[in-house]
Amino acid sequence: MKANSVQLVSPDRVSAADLLALTTEPAVLATATTFAAVWGTFLSPRAPRPARGAAWPALKLAVFSLAALALAAVAGPPPAAVFLCAPLLSTVHGGAR
Predict the structure, then answer these.
(1) d(CA 37, CA 4)
(2) Residue 27, class by beta-carbon neighbours within 10 Å (0-12 exposed, 13-18 middle, 19+ buried)?
């Protein structure tokens, strides 16, 4: 049997792992879509409704902080901290819109 093949116990039964995948995978896709929508609407250089003043750095840091938390869960705190340094420096040195 190949290493990446799935061994089904019974074709008419759904395992707990299948149910977990069914609920978590769409949630990940919805989260990524939400991040893309927030970025495109409020934070991108050509945003139709750009965040201004204090809202811009706050929203930018919120998006990158949540992404860093997700990275920390997968790769650990050191890579997440390195990842978060660039947006922090960019926001501090870039000021507000």
Answers:
(1) 34
(2) exposed
Q: What's the predicted TM-score (pTM) here?
A: 0.69
SS (H, E, C) 29-93: HHHHHHHHHHHHHHHCCCCCCCCCCCHHHHHHHHHHHHHHHHHHHHHCHHHHHHHHHHHHHHHHH
Task: Retrieve residue 34's tokens.
Answer: 């939400």
Angle of helix 77-94 relative to helix 55-75, nearest 10 degrees? 170
Q: Give the separation between CA 77 and CA 56, rounded to whole angstroms.
A: 26
Comparison of pLDDT for 24 and 77, the residue scoring more? 77
- Give the pLDDT confidence of 32-44 residue by residue, as tens digits: 899 999 999 999 9
For residue 22, what pLDDT band results from cuts at 50, 70 and 90?
A: confident
